[in-house]
């Protein structure tokens, strides 16, 4: 696997793992947000920014849709958290993000 592809894979997988952890916490709490869930989403955002930075450095546009769908997820998650509302919309955005994730392919 090329080093650029490996870096993308690590950042993308870390982003998805953090998103899954945040939503798992919310689901345990009837889709309500707490500090731990917010911390996971913030870490996922950091990973998504790494994907965006790598894309700019390498000129690789294959991850643009993944990043854009993450931003939609992040926006809906944070909006619900700031209004103390259940993460129902974020769950729908999560499904769209996962669809984009599944479209990515990494050679091993």
Textual characterization of the structure:
The chain is mainly alpha-helical and 108 residues long. It contains four helices and no strands. The protein has helices at residues 3-28, 35-58, 64-82, 88-103. It is elongated and about 40 Å long. The model has no long low-confidence stretch (mean pLDDT 90).
Unreliable stretches covering 5 or more consecutive residues: none
Q: How many strands?
A: 0
Proportion of helical residues: over 70%
- What is Rg? 14 Å
Shape: elongated
Terminal Cα separation, in Å? Answer: 6 Å
The SSE order reads: HHHH
Helix/strand layout:
Blueprint: H1 3-28, H2 35-58, H3 64-82, H4 88-103
Write a brief caption for the model.
With 108 residues, the chain is an all-alpha fold.
Features of this protein?
mainly alpha; elongated
């Amino acid at each position: 696997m090329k080093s650029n592809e490996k870096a993308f894979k690590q950042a993308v997988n870390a982003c998805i793992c953090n998103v899954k952890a945040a939503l798992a916490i919310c689901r345990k709490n009837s889709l309500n947000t707490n500090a731990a869930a917010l911390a996971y989403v913030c870490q996922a955002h950091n990973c998504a920014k790494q994907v965006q930075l790598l894309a700019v450095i390498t000129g690789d546009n294959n991850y643009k849709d993944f990043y854009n769908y993450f931003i939609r997820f992040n926006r809906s998650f944070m909006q619900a958290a700031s209004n103390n509302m259940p993460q129902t919309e974020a769950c729908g955005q999560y499904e769209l993000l996962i669809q984009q994730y599944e479209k990515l392919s990494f050679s091993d």
